[in-house]
Amino acid sequence: MIETNPKHLVGQSITVAGLAENAHQGALVTLSDGSEVYVVGLRRWDKALLGKRVKVTGFLQRTKLAPDPDVNEKGEVSHGMYGSSLTLEEASWEALA
């Protein structure tokens, strides 16, 4: 089970362990080093799992989850996210004790 940034394992099937959290882009697992891995297809964690330690198994990818923010002529910044995020596709999960 992986508990730190798994970026070197992109393209592989892995299992991560961390804290179940929700974000604007969807459900994610925050690992012990602060890295985040989004769970593809899971919009929000169930109340029973939210804030708890979970393990999630899936196929690790890098995915663009939101458009880059735009800055208009007034300097106002739109909502967005630069770069890509680590995601787990075809994922399954369960609570950890």
Structure notes:
There is one protein chain. By secondary structure, this protein is mainly β. The chain has one domain (7-67, 78-95): OB fold (Dihydrolipoamide Acetyltransferase, E2P) (Beta Barrel). 0% of the residues lie in helices and 43% in strands. The chain contains no helices and 5 strands. It has strands spanning 13-23, 26-30, 36-39, 53-63, 85-95. It has a 5-stranded mixed beta barrel with strand order 1-2-3-5-4. β2 (26-30) and β3 (36-39) form a beta hairpin. The protein is globular and about 50 Å long. The mean pLDDT is 93.
Q: What is the molecular shape? A: globular
Order of helices and strands: EEEEE
CATH C-level:
Mainly Beta
- CATH second-level architecture: Beta Barrel
Mean pLDDT: 93
How far the N terminus sits from the C terminus, by CA atoms, comes to 14 Å
Feature tags:
single chain, 97 residues, mainly beta, OB fold (Dihydrolipoamide Acetyltransferase, E2P), five-stranded mixed beta barrel, globular
Quick gist of this model?
With about 100 residues, the protein is mainly β. It has no helices and five strands. The chain has a single domain, classed as OB fold (Dihydrolipoamide Acetyltransferase, E2P).
